């Protein structure tokens, strides 16, 4: 019968040990403290261009779908 090796640094579903050294280094590497938010301070030109492109893409797709549906309705008449 085979036995499973459990690494104490990496708990498995059956493992009960926890590596606290890993958690401390992880917390230092991913520090969540940052400066307070100031509304309107961020440059959003990239987001505005992306949204404008999405709206343009969606509009052209709606027009194309409408033209295709009108063509299909007329072709089957």
Please provide a written account of the structure.
By secondary structure, the chain is mostly helical. It has two helices and no strands.
List keywords for this structure.
0% strand, 2 helices, 77 residues, mainly alpha, single chain, rod-shaped
Brief summary of the model shown:
The protein is mostly helical and 77 residues long.
Task: Summarize the helices and strands and which ones pair or pack.
Blueprint: H1 20-29, H2 45-75
Share of helical residues: 40-55%
Approximate strand percentage:
under 5%
Mean pLDDT: 78
Radius of gyration: 28 Å
Tell me, briefly, the overall form: rod-shaped
Helix-strand topology string = HH
Tell me the number of helical segments per DSSP (H or I, 4 or more residues long).
2
Could you say which structural class the secondary elements and strand pairing correspond to?
mainly alpha
Distance between the termini: 73 Å
């Amino acid at each position: 019968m085979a036995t499973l090796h459990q690494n104490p640094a990496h708990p498995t579903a059956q493992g009960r040990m926890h590596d606290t050294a890993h958690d401390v280094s992880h917390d230092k590497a991913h520090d969540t403290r940052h400066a307070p938010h100031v509304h309107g301070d961020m440059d959003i030109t990239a987001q505005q261009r992306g949204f404008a492109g999405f709206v343009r893409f969606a509009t052209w797709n709606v027009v194309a779908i409408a033209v295709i549906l009108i063509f299909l309705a007329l072709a089957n008449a």
